Amino acid sequence: MIPILEKLSGFYSSSVLAIVTIGYILGELGHYLIGVTSKQTAIELDYGDHACQQNSRFTRHELVTQCSDVKNESSCYALELNSTFILVFTIAGVFMGFAADKYNRVKMLTVCTIIFGIAILLQGTVKSYWHLVVLRMVMAAGESGCNPLATGIMSDIFPENKRALVMAIFNWGIYGGYGIAFPVGRYITTLNFFDMGWRVCYLGAGVLTIIIAGLTGTTLREPERKSIGEGDRTTASGKPVTLWQVIKSPAMIMLMIAASISHSGGMTFAYNADLYYNTYFPDVDLGWWLFAVTIGIGSVGVVVGGVVSDKIVAKMGIRSRAFVLAISQLIATLPAFGSVYFDPLWAMITLGLSYFFAEMWFGIVFAIVVEIVPLRVRSSTIGVFLFVMNNIGGNLPILVDPVAKVIGYRGSIMLFYAGFYGITSILFLITCFLLEGKPKPNESEQEAQKTHPDAVLGARHIVDETLLSNGRPAQLPQHLQMSSNGYEKSQSTQPRHNGAESSRL
């Protein structure tokens, strides 16, 4: 190998993480841009009239006062588009997960990135509302492969002592894309480059995404699939573990519920931050503040959470990751309340504190998932996990509006945003006790012998299926086995002292 290339090869793992993370950020940027550009998009494409006007005589353009200046009703349509996105995103993600367990993940990730990149690009050229809806569905289908495919690739590249940090950095792409959407959607649109307004945002994001797709296809290589973590032992019955057995385990069910509630809290703030601060502080432009908090402080929190989780997992086992989640969400709860209670200055300060601890959860959750799930169903499990998490967490924020009519908008945000963080802390703490601590020597073998073959499979019994073709665990011939004192056993056909049959070649 050329010396310079040999030196650069040492940065391969880091380059993989950088490329897939940037691709994910751009996908989420395309996702969240509609929430920031909704006013301009709705006016130009002429949709949403029936949501904010009680008349059929005038169009938006003929009104003296736009509805966005009154109650910002176009944001409701942004949420509707997000609901459509989530539906397609989650359903397609399940199929992508199944495919990722069987086919070349790098090639699939490349194709997926090209698809949602082109969809984002074309959103900058739409002329009708239905064009926008269709393209967002296509974008969702393409982006749905990012998480299960990239997670599978990275779990086979990075060791356990870096796994939570790597997953945290990658999954932070959701908040990175959301944070970047504020200045891009607001200020690029205002600058009105080439007299194209909001369209430039989508055109630029689309072009960058296609470039990343090219780098994905030309620089990444499919890694060898590896069995990892506590999910890769063999059951006493020797039967392959099914996806259903993995999903119905108590630890996985509790983990999905906790992740869904936590995601709902984050999405509540994501969908409502712009509207909330514009409603209560109309004279204060908080766009750059929101960008700095989500990108700057959120990034630090992601790194700290991953490092802490990776450091203590060697001492306490997988259980320690859930413990970190419970503590971080608990600490994030009180400042989250402050971010929707105080005036702008203290609102941003407490938001920063909340983000620092709250954003630790995403990467650590997926580190737990890949460590307790067998290799053969790893990506499909992630697809199902995302389906549940995004459909619950992504759609619960719809309840903010009806609840706001009863307790007020601010109270509703407090409940679904800060309140859900507190609930999540309790749920992650319960999950702690359903996961294994650090295993003792030979603990897994003893446990496997005691476990009934047909017992319900909990997270502590989710295992890999590294078996012979006949479905039974491998066993060495007797003449190659070692006695307890370390010497070779006799080739005699006499029965062993424990009464068991001797092995036969």
Automatic annotation (TrEMBL):
<feature type="transmembrane region" description="Helical">
    <location>
        <begin position="106"/>
        <end position="126"/>
    </location>
</feature>
<feature type="transmembrane region" description="Helical">
    <location>
        <begin position="12"/>
        <end position="34"/>
    </location>
</feature>
<dbReference type="InterPro" id="IPR011701">
    <property type="entry name" value="MFS"/>
</dbReference>
<protein>
    <submittedName>
        <fullName>GH12563</fullName>
    </submittedName>
</protein>
<feature type="compositionally biased region" description="Polar residues">
    <location>
        <begin position="478"/>
        <end position="496"/>
    </location>
</feature>
<dbReference type="GO" id="GO:0016020">
    <property type="term" value="C:membrane"/>
</dbReference>
<dbReference type="InterPro" id="IPR036259">
    <property type="entry name" value="MFS_trans_sf"/>
</dbReference>
<feature type="transmembrane region" description="Helical">
    <location>
        <begin position="286"/>
        <end position="308"/>
    </location>
</feature>
<keyword id="KW-1133">Transmembrane helix</keyword>
<dbReference type="GO" id="GO:0022857">
    <property type="term" value="F:transmembrane transporter activity"/>
</dbReference>
<keyword id="KW-0472">Membrane</keyword>
<feature type="transmembrane region" description="Helical">
    <location>
        <begin position="412"/>
        <end position="435"/>
    </location>
</feature>
<comment type="similarity">
    <text>Belongs to the major facilitator superfamily. Spinster (TC 2.A.1.49) family.</text>
</comment>
<feature type="region of interest" description="Disordered">
    <location>
        <begin position="474"/>
        <end position="505"/>
    </location>
</feature>
<feature type="domain" description="Major facilitator superfamily (MFS) profile">
    <location>
        <begin position="16"/>
        <end position="440"/>
    </location>
</feature>
<feature type="transmembrane region" description="Helical">
    <location>
        <begin position="241"/>
        <end position="266"/>
    </location>
</feature>
<keyword id="KW-0813">Transport</keyword>
<dbReference type="InterPro" id="IPR044770">
    <property type="entry name" value="MFS_spinster-like"/>
</dbReference>
<feature type="transmembrane region" description="Helical">
    <location>
        <begin position="81"/>
        <end position="100"/>
    </location>
</feature>
<feature type="transmembrane region" description="Helical">
    <location>
        <begin position="196"/>
        <end position="220"/>
    </location>
</feature>
<feature type="transmembrane region" description="Helical">
    <location>
        <begin position="382"/>
        <end position="400"/>
    </location>
</feature>
<dbReference type="InterPro" id="IPR020846">
    <property type="entry name" value="MFS_dom"/>
</dbReference>
<feature type="transmembrane region" description="Helical">
    <location>
        <begin position="348"/>
        <end position="370"/>
    </location>
</feature>
<feature type="transmembrane region" description="Helical">
    <location>
        <begin position="164"/>
        <end position="184"/>
    </location>
</feature>
<dbReference type="Pfam" id="PF07690">
    <property type="entry name" value="MFS_1"/>
</dbReference>
<feature type="transmembrane region" description="Helical">
    <location>
        <begin position="320"/>
        <end position="342"/>
    </location>
</feature>
<keyword id="KW-0812">Transmembrane</keyword>
